[in-house]
Amino acid sequence: MTASLNGKRVAFLATDGVEEIEYTQPRKAVEAAGGQAELVSLSDGEIQALNHLDKAGTYRVEKTVRDADPGQYDALVLPGGVANPDFLRADADAVRFVREFVSAGKPVAAICHGPWTLVEAGVVDGRTLTSWPSLRTDLVNAGATWVDEEVFVDDHLITSRNPDDLPAFCDALLAQLTS
């Protein structure tokens, strides 16, 4: 992609159990386009990423969610993994952080199990999303329309199903940031 993200800041909200490639590949795409990426998490230190259910790399937290200001960022990425969004949706600061991005009309990109945090934030009613198939009932019960597509963009909300969808997911995120 030739578009530049110079001057754009993107928060990646993740914690232990994040699916590694769903964090690293979008982050690399943002940085390769000239944007600044920042790992925001529940506490200081490092988070443990997974490759499906096996331990993968660890990543240094750059800011805690309680100290992060959504106004300082241009977009938010919610990587999946089964445990990561489950921990995030149980944290009031993480839920507030997500809700503020959506309320501000900023791009929010969620992949795989990432939309669980969107459900908890109460921001999916009347929206169309995709996700890992097991989230379908949760999304529908929260008022969303669920579709089985590689990537779906509903206004500033970008969703994808799984790691195989990462190229389309990253392209949609970059397109939102450069439009």
UniProtKB/TrEMBL annotation:
InterPro entries with a match to the protein in the record: C56_PfpI-like (IPR006286), Class_I_gatase-like (IPR029062), DJ-1/PfpI (IPR002818)
Pfam families: DJ-1_PfpI (PF01965)
PROSITE patterns: PEPTIDASE_C56_PFPI
Annotated ranges, domain DJ-1/PfpI: 8-175
Classification via SUPFAM superfamilies: Class I glutamine amidotransferase-like (SSF52317)
PANTHER family per the UniProt record, alphabetical: DJ-1 PROTEIN, PROTEINASE
Similarity comment text for this entry: Belongs to the peptidase C56 family.
Protein name, per record: Peptidase C56
Lineage: Bacteria, Bacillati, Actinomycetota, Actinomycetes, Micromonosporales
